[in-house]
Amino acid sequence: MKGHIDEVLLDGYLVHVYTPPVSVNHNELYPVLYVQDGSSLFLGSLDELERCFATGELPRVVLVGIQPVNRLDDYTPWQAVALVEGRPAFGGGGDAYLEFMVTQIMPHVEAGYPVQTGPKHTGIIGASLGGLISMYAAFRYADVFGRIGSISGSYWYPGMIEYVQSASNAAVTAGTHRFYVSVGTCEGEGKTTVQKDMVPLTLQVCDTLLAYGLTEREVRLVKDKGAVHNINHFRRQFPKAVAWLLG
To answer: What local confidence, expressed as pLDDT, does residue 188 receive?
Structure first.
């Protein structure tokens, strides 16, 4: 790794900020992606990303990894019962988490790092429940996040499909927003809960985005052949997501 990672604690949230190696232009400002689950999605991809920076295949990007305090709370938009008896319920603290991100983490990053501002240069990305809250943020803060990555998003979450399909979500617009959505073709296999419908629910979300007027040049759907709901498959998708969202 030729770039640099800073570690900071903001009101109980551990945040890792990756800054890429500088280009010839030392005054360059970079797009920024806010990444769920800390640095777990991108840490193993930095060598590949930096190779692409050097060759010009990708623009340099600042990555902000935010470690959740409680992902069943931070990454869920409203409360819901547990999928399986005996497991914790979902806390539904997503609105508070996103507000903290927008009002506390983002100002810290924008004040201290060489980042571009505005929705066309600001993205949010995550996997599983992190992909769910990233998609929710696309609608909740449509004027903030214009680049959205959802890797194996948990669209089985009660009420999420209905929320995405709500007419009030027309704030997501062509020309401003770009989506990278992936799902493993084997996700849901062997499940008995609503998680068995991972693939068709993901397709439904993408169909809804296209119905809002976005085109296939703005909505990238990737069906990862043979992939299951696993962190290794999530990590494999991350560089591809960056390439699509910012390339």
So the answer is: 85
Q: Chain centroid to CA 113: how far?
A: 20
> Distance between CA 180 and CA 242 in Å, rounded?
9
Stated as kind and residue range, the H or E segment containing 48 is helix 46-55
CB-CB contact of 128 with 234 (8 Å): yes
% pLDDT > 70, the chain: 97
State the Cα–Cα distance between residues 27 and 50, nearest whole angstrom: 18
Distance CA 138, CA 219 (A): 13
30 CB burial (10 A radius; 0-12, 13-18, 19+):
buried
Mean pLDDT of the chain: 92
Q: Which distant-in-sequence residues (6+ apart) come within 8 Å of 134 by Cβ?
A: 36, 124, 125, 126, 148, 149, 150, 153
Cβ 43 vs Cβ 53: under 8 Å: no
How far is Cα 234 from Cα 152, in angstroms, rounded to an integer?
7
- Taking the C-alpha atoms of residue 4 and residue 6, their distance in angstroms, rounded to an integer, is 7
pLDDT per position as a tens digit, 92-103? 999 999 999 999
Task: Please choose, from the candidates 115, 145, 157, 109, the residue with its C-alpha nearest in 3D space to the C-alpha of residue 8.
Answer: 109
